[in-house]
Predict the 3D structure of the following.
Amino acid sequence: MSWYQPHLRMSFDLIERSGITQSDQIVDVGGGASTLVDDLLDCGYHNITILDISSKAIDISKARLGSRANGIHWIVDDVLQAPLEHGGYQLWHDRAVLHFLTNAESRRAYVTQVRNAVAPGGSVVIATFALDGPSKCSGLEVSRYSPEALLAEFGPGFRLIESHSESHRTPPGAVQSFLYCLLSFEGLNSAG
Ligand SMILES: C[S@@+](CC[C@H](N)C(=O)[O-])C[C@H]1O[C@@H](n2cnc3c(N)ncnc32)[C@H](O)[C@@H]1O
């Protein structure tokens, strides 16, 4: 739970700055227990998919949202293999999932999913541990990123719009360095 934030303020600000409309389709990967969905609903976004490998995490949000949960599309699945609609999303959000993918094959599968699911002209907001962030989280090895390394991970077709660092204070009081990037997806045929 070291990554826990009561509100994903930086993610939310980048989503707002991506230029999506309130009707656009948003997918929050690993968003199970996160309150980002509450803040998106409060601001009028209403086409929201939450994908998480953990049904327990999703149940926490369903319980918190009450009847508002009925308007959310919930998917319990692994992001690396979930059958997501081709070009179905204008915005992909992930805070603290990608950095757990420490082998190249998993990262390639992740990027393939993003390329398939995000509509050309859509946006991707990713939050990972920064280069000076922790090398382990919840006992697991993590990958750490600079903005350039993150862009390189996504490859051709993506453009870096903005990046920000955040010193995240964990519930026990330690500080973790996060990197937030807003990327645009130009499309499969773009040379990037
Ligand atoms: C570190 S937590 C971050 C939660 C939230 N995004 C936040 O920033 O507060 C990671 C979440 O991703 C989920 N997760 C981990 N691996 C996943 C995968 N391969 N596919 C989908 N969800 C995954 C976990 O169940 C957990 O809810």
User: Anything to note?
Assistant: The radius of gyration is 15 Å. Strands lie at 25-29, 47-52, 73-76, 89-95, 118-129, 136-137, 140-141, 158-169, 175-185. The first strand starts at residue 25 and ends at 29. The helical segments are 9-17, 36-42, 55-65, 104-117, 147-154.
